[in-house]
Specification:
Mean pLDDT of chain A: 90
Domain HTH lacI-type (chains A, B): 29-83
GO molecular function (chains A, B): DNA binding
Number of helices of chain A: 14
Oligomer: homodimer
Keywords (chains A, B): DNA-binding, Transcription, Transcription regulation
Shape of chain A: elongated
Distance between the termini of chain A: 74 Å
Order of helices and strands of chain A: HHHHHEHEHEHEEHEHEHEHEHEHEE
Helix content of chain A: 40-55%
Largest interface: A-B, 44 and 44 residues
Strand content of chain A: 5-15%
Largest sheet of chain A: 6 strands, parallel
Number of strands of chain A: 12
Strand order of the largest sheet of chain A: 2-1-3-4-5-11
Protein name (chains A, B): LacI family DNA-binding transcriptional regulator
Structural class of chain A: alpha/beta
Chain lengths: 369, 369
DNA sequence: TTGTATGCGTTATCAT
DNA sequence: ATGATAACGCATACAA
């Protein structure tokens, strides 16, 4: 940085600079090199590295000067061995969509970039027999600094209990938030307010004049599915409306299930004039069903999805969808894990927003239910 | 596994089993525990762990029995420190699409699952000032067991030179293969034969009667862009056709660039009856352009993409596209890196295939060029 | 074939 | 505030 090429070390002004001599060797610097060059013990160097308060400012500067000059970076392996924990964050997930995973990764990296922490990805299969054991081995063996859990396994009680037992810090990314969170889970979580965006989606449809609305849900047991449904219900309720049972159909967050569900809904008589799908995959399935029936979106059918996946803005007509700030969520999750602060916030909540595109329009004026 | 609960160790049949005693302590086993329990030195245990041939079969079994009973797993950190390298694979990439990254990751994991190796993801920015330095620090600090490079940075000569200098094993995943690979790069690579699938795409269009075909290329300098173009040219040439210059337009592998390119092509007079886009993102851009112009796919315009991205099978009409076995490619890359075999294959090639869907059809019989 | 002493690069303990 | 010495868990050199 701003260190002059010839520093005024106690070894004398015009003598051969031992630092320069060291740099000639072109070997990776260790704490020992720093110690001997700075003429202190390794322990003192270690204290500097770890920001121990019990180091004289003068000594600290001296050591830091050497560290910068020879480009010393402590070896994470050795450090980890001594600390008994690594500097690795584990990202564990079962099977979310690709874009979601990549966005989360990007967010995590926003946070850890330059911090010396790295992220190791660990997909798993929640239906596998050794699901828990496999994760246990992974976490234990790698001595992870922290774990980030994505939905839906972030809602797996057994997994959480095991991680508690393993005594590893972890953060859950989830849509769940509220009373059904019982018994209360104390681990930090980063939450997206799915409910809110879906509420907006419902109101949007109502304002467009739709009253006969189809709802394609997410898989039973998924917190996100529950939240989205409740948000949607709430939005309708604000206008004195509600979903009729026959227009509620179960999806599995897959394209195929959305297609089938929409086919079912559109075969009803009278058919719904709008469909809310609990994610974009299924909404696109509804597009396909509409196309097969020759229904034009949005003129004859309005569609809303959830995720604001890339396809939403690429398909014609553009898909109105609810967007959560996935990348921010990932970043926050990592921050929660590696922040120095003692009292880290236990729950961070992110709002979701309705992105209105061309897939939603006014109900056909002449449509007879 | 199949070890009886009470084993017949030399310590005596009905005496207090030292192994059981150890298991009571519920502490993570170390090599020392194994050594004392098996009544050998740590070194012998170490040899067993590392499959050293110079261990008597009997001794080996004895040690392995203890290892299994107490569930000993060598600590990667300590092992890495002694080995001077970690058991981590680095996946470095700049900005491919999300599905590609996730597929590659899945393939890598197919390979390393249960091997003790883990994968750490490292996105980077090839336009950043400290692009190389940043990667150097990463690789050096983590003492990576190997590096997997994705396109387009897998084609960056400076990066390759640096990795050579760092003496870290690495594999390149690329589309490039052939004479233009000069000066020859000796590092292992896993190659997809982009050329072949694109050749098939061209022939497919020709067979449907198309002669006036638009081509949207990938970014200049990308090996994949070059290969796809050449494959397509070759396919046309087999039927005595070739791309006319005015129908070749440059894309950037982005949705927007595909949209603009297609708009340009479709504004020509006479317009092309078919468009090949060098990836699906751009092909979907062409869909949008066609929709804006009121052109029906495939009746009035045939479209082919590349990647067989999820959107290809979800959009209506389904997009005919070239598919590469991404996951297999990822797996092979990992295998190349962690295989025990000395003479590991330097280049593995995977075929690509044309997936025909509904976006391609016969040229309109009455279309006058 | 097996064991002993030592090193890998860092932190923890306990002194001074 | 600083330092000598012993961990941390495993591998290597060199003996035996």
């Amino acid at each position: 940085m701003s260190i002059p090429p010839s520093s005024k070390t106690p070894s004398g002004p015009s003598a051969v600079d031992p630092v320069e001599a060291f740099l000639q060797r072109r070997k990776k610097a260790t704490i020992n090199d720093v110690a001997s060059l700075a003429q202190v013990s390794k322990k003192t160097v270690s204290r500097v590295i770890n920001n121990s308060p019990s180091v004289r400012a003068e000594t600290r500067e001296q050591v830091n000067a050497i560290i910068n000059r020879i480009g010393f970076k402590p070896d994470p392996q050795a450090r980890g061995l001594a600390f008994r924990r690594s500097f690795l964050l584990g990202l564990i997930y079962d099977n979310p969509n690709a874009q979601y995973v990549v966005n989360i990764q990007a967010g995590i990296l926003d946070c850890i970039r330059g911090s010396g922490t790295e992220i190791i990805v660990h997909p798993c299969d929640k239906n596998s027999d050794d699901f828990l054991e496999e994760i246990r081995d992974f976490v234990e063996l790698q001595r992870l600094a922290g774990v980030i859990l994505l939905p839906p396994i972030a809602e797996n009680r057994q997994l959480l209990a095991m991680l508690d037992d393993l005594d590893v810090p972890y953060v859950r990314i989830t849509a769940m938030h509220g009373a059904e969170n019982t018994p209360p889970i104390l681990s930090p979580q980063v939450v997206s307010r799915d409910r809110q965006g879906c509420l907006a989606a419902a109101e949007h449809l109502v304002e467009l004049g739709h009253t006969r609305i189809g709802f394609i849900s997410g898989p039973a047991g998924y917190a996100s599915a529950r939240e989205r449904r409740q948000g949607f219900d709430e939005g309708l309720a604000r206008h004195g409306l509600s979903l009729s049972d026959e227009l509620i159909t179960g999806g599995e967050y897959t394209f195929e299930s959305g297609f089938e569900a929409a086919r079912h809904l559109l075969a009803l008589s009278p058919r719904p004039t709008a469909i809310f799908a609990s994610n974009d995959e299924m909404a696109i399935g509804a597009y396909k069903a509409a196309a097969q029936l020759g229904l034009t979106i949005p003129d004859e059918l309005s569609v809303i999805g959830y995720d604001d996946a890339p396809i939403a803005s690429r398909i014609t007509p553009g898909l109105t969808s609810v967007k959560a700030p996935i990348r921010d969520i990932g970043r926050t999750a990592a921050e929660t894990l590696i922040s120095e602060e003692k009292p880290r916030r236990n729950t961070t909540i992110f709002d979701t927003a309705l992105i209105v595109r061309e897939s939603t329009g006014p109900r056909e004026p002449d449509f007879k239910p």
